[in-house]
Design goal:
Layout (H helix, E strand, L loop, with lengths): L1 H16 L6 H17 L1 H12 L3 H27 L2 E3 L9 E8 L2 E5 L7 H12 L3 E5 L5 H14 L5 E3 L4 H8 L5 E5 L2 H13 L4 E4 L5 E4 L5 H16 L12 E5 L3 H16 L3 H4 L8 H11 L8 E3 L3 E2 L4 E2 L2 E4 L6 H4 L6 E7 L4 H7 L7 E4 L3 H10 L5 E3 L20 E2 L5 H6 L1 E8 L17 H14 L4 H27 L27 E2 L4 E2 L8 H8 L2 H7 L19 H19 L12
Parallel strand pairs: 3-4, 3-6, 4-5, 6-7, 8-9, 8-15, 9-14, 13-14, 15-16
Antiparallel strand pairs: 1-2, 2-18, 7-17, 10-13, 11-12, 19-20
Helix pairs in contact: 2-4, 3-4, 3-6, 4-5, 9-10
């Protein structure tokens, strides 16, 4: 078996490296092939589900066949939009750069499916992995052997066998698979096995999505209209005993209700159990059986706990030969009993009474975070409390389990109920990496950079100016800075060409803390004079010695010479070395500010940055 695992993994990894699966056409072809597989073999799927779990054909289509077809159709309609890069708006500071987010496949994916929905929980994640462009190996549950054999036989006949493989086996095969390196692991199952999967994935730093479970509560508030109460109880019956005989991770685990409504609730539960499953549910064959003898014994032990049997108000009969457990209702079983501390995962429904339904929030918060919370109420304030004061994978008001069928909503847990999400676009995201892409330009060169004279006053000034744009405190300030930024960007683009043909103009900066931006104006004035030598020099041939002398001369000579002249080129190490206009004037402003601080010269008499 080691050789089979290594060969299968090597083949799907080679297929992924060939970039074959990145094609949208390939993804669409595989999704259509999957639909064809289900449509051509619907009867075979129903028979396999009946052999493994005793599911009725109607239940098989509703929870398995229909779910896969719906999900595949949704992916086919949206895959072109999902794979397209999404543009991201960047701050004007980075203009003319462009940004986008590009989804890319993770690589080789391992999917562990569960036995309670052995078809949909294998193929639903597969649809997301294919849509994202991955190659996949699926490990079906050995506790549903007929469905596992169906997948192993038919999937290679319809789909790309070099990119999608089914590996059957028990715990030893699962252990071998977990020893390999994967790009993503998707697991659906119990918390105990989930911990094993997480430990194995940690060795290779493999990202994992865990769809676990938990004790999902249902809150039944007082409903003034009797018709609303009947609808609520009918949905509770359908959500508890309808899908897979209560063996569902998002099924109702227990009901919280006020004491005065408990008798009404039990009466309606019995009524709708008879309507849905008949007088004798075992003979009606409308309800799935327990998956195997091990789980049957687990449920028997839950009912045999101390004082638990005394709380049974309906049902409790067990058929070991046919692995069938009758729908069972318990009223106020001990809260420390195993039936109230462990996930039931069967057709047993405890009812817990409270003096006030508002206490249900505290009751839920005292236990691990559930996969879902169901609440039947018309009280908007109570709804807001449930949403704000509890934590769960999902919250559904006035219905049960419908969130699982909605591709527009994410499905996943939190805390011990799992982490990660899937369904619809969220499945695509789960099996994709969103890569940030930024396309910059060589001009203009934006300062500051993480080198050079970062601690100078000019750079600190520039950082304050940038901060004012990126996090404006008022609308007026934002518009003001945006206007000056547009002007600055436009000016910077033509700065190099303008300085070759235009003479220099002196500009007075009226407010150094909020400058109006640079202005490049033509003039007929004579070129600036070198104040150190009293010699007129054109801009293109100005000496840089003014900056050096300003650093070497003593205070008296500086004072007599006046403020330092603007240099043509910076000294070595003062900027990037390219002689760019912005770096030259950063050095000049540093010298000018040092002169002003030393001699307290009036700013109104100091020339600002010329063009």
């Amino acid at each position: 078996m080691v050789q089979v695992v290594e060969e299968s993994l090597g083949e799907v990894r080679k297929t992924f490296r060939s970039r074959k699966t990145r094609s949208v056409a390939w993804r669409n072809n595989q999704l259509r092939a999957l639909k064809q597989l289900i449509n051509d073999n619907e009867d075979t799927v129903s028979k396999a589900l009946y052999d493994d779990l005793g599911k009725h054909p109607t239940e098989a289509y509703r929870d398995e066949v229909g779910v896969v077809l719906k999900t595949a159709d949704y992916a086919l309609r949206n895959i072109d939009k999902w794979v397209a890069a999404k543009k991201s708006s960047l701050p004007l500071l980075f203009y003319p750069a462009k940004g986008e987010v590009q989804p890319e496949p993770l690589g080789v994916v391992l999917i562990f499916s569960s036995w309670n929905f052995p078809i949909s929980l294998a193929l639903d994640p597969l649809i997301g992995a294919i849509s994202a462009g991955n190659t996949v190996i699926i490990k079906p549950s050995e506790q549903a052997p007929a469905c596992s054999s169906f997948l192993a036989h038919y999937v290679p006949l319809y789909m790309d066998s070099k990119a999608i493989k089914i590996i059957e086996g028990g715990a030893e095969i699962s252990e071998l698979l977990l020893q390999q390196k994967w790009d993503k692991i998707f697991f659906t199952g119990s918390c105990r096995i989930g911990r094993i999967v997480m430990s194995a994935a940690a060795k290779h730093l493999t990202p994992v999505t865990l769809e676990l479970g938990g004790k999902c509560p249902t809150i039944l508030d007082s409903l003034s209209d009797p018709r609303d109460m009947k609808v609520a109880v009918k949905r509770i019956v359908g959500g508890k005993w309808g899908p897979c005989g209560g063996q569902v991770c998002i099924g109702i685990d227990y009901v919280l209700v006020e004491e005065k409504f408990a008798s009404t609730l039990i009466e309606l539960l019995l009524k709708f159990i008879k309507i849905c499953f008949g007088e004798n549910p075992k003979d009606a064959k409308r309800m799935a059986r327990i998956v195997n003898r091990s789980h049957f014994e687990r449920l028997r032990n839950l009912l045999s706990g101390p004082h638990v049997a005394d709380s049974i108000v309906h049902g409790g009969s067990l058929d070991e030969e046919n692995l069938f457990v009758e729908p069972t209702i318990l009223l106020n079983p001990p809260l420390d009993a195993e039936i109230m501390t462990e996930e039931i995962f069967g057709p047993l429904l405890p009812i817990i009474t409270l003096r006030n339904i508002q206490e249900s929030i505290e009751f839920i918060n005292s236990r691990p975070k559930p996969l879902a919370i169901y609440a039947f109420t018309k009280d908007e304030a109570f709804k807001r409390r449930i949403l704000s004061e509890t934590s769960s994978g999902s919250v559904v008001f006035n219905d049960v389990m419908v969130q699982f069928l909605c591709d527009e909503l994410p499905f996943g847990g939190v805390g011990q109920s799992g982490f990660g999400r899937y369904h619809g676009k969220y499945s695509f995201d789960t099996f994709s990496h969103e890569k940030a892409v930024m396309q910059g330009s060589f001009f203009p060169e934006i300062e500051p950079r993480p080198f050079g004279r970062m601690e100078t006053a000019a750079h600190r000034y520039r950082l304050r100016w940038i901060s004012a744009y990126t996090s404006p405190k008022t609308k007026n300030k934002q518009e003001n800075v945006r206007t000056h930024t547009v002007l600055a960007m436009a000016i910077m683009k033509g700065a190099l060409s303008l300085k070759r043909v235009l003479p220099i103009t002196k500009i007075t900066v009226t407010n150094r803390r909020n400058p109006p931006g640079p202005f490049w104006l033509p003039t007929k004035k004579k070129p600036m004079a070198d104040q150190a030598t009293n010699k007129s020099l054109p801009y293109e041939s100005a000496s840089t010695q003014g900056v050096g002398k300003g650093k070497e001369e003593d205070g008296e000579s500086k004072k007599s010479a006046g403020p330092p002249p603007p240099p043509e080129k910076p000294l070595a190490g003062d900027c990037c070395g390219s002689g760019c206009v912005r770096c030259v004037w950063d050095v000049y402003y540093e010298e000018l500010e040092a002169y002003n601080k030393l001699y307290k010269t009036d700013e109104s008499e100091v020339n600002s940055k010329p063009s």
